[in-house]
Amino acid sequence: MQASPVLFVFGAVAEFAGIVLLGFPDLLPGAIRLSGWLRRQSNRLRRVVGLPTRPIVVSIGAAGEINIAGRVAALVVSRSGGTLDEKVAFLLRRDQAAQRQENELADRVDQLEAESRQRIADAQREMEQHIAAETEAYRPLRIAGTAALALGLALTTVATLIA
Known about the structure:
Layout: H1 3-23, H2 31-49, H3 84-137, H4 139-162
Helix pairs in contact: 1-4, 2-4
């Protein structure tokens, strides 16, 4: 049996495995578990060689929120039989009340904008932390994928030289 076809097949399989591990580790069932196993194995190898081990960090977060809101609506009307001075005074009071409500609404909108900016910044920070954690979790798989890709390229190159 010739070694060339076997090297081609094993090289192609190793290249495919390397591409999947590098580009799409989420598609593998048990990828996080496999990555943790690879990390433990690399720590054992580092211990044997005499290098310091890399720490394995597990982070846990908690969050909670309670919102309670209510609204009451009322309609204020003037007396139908009041004098002109009473009607003008009523209109002036209503105008002042409307201006106060407008100012309160503007304050609430400003507060909502500030809270929205803060919530967006918090969400962005959480996403960045999540992406960093996922990147760190899959690092051993990506290293193994790089090694598999290099092995596959080496095997196919050797098979080409032999043929």
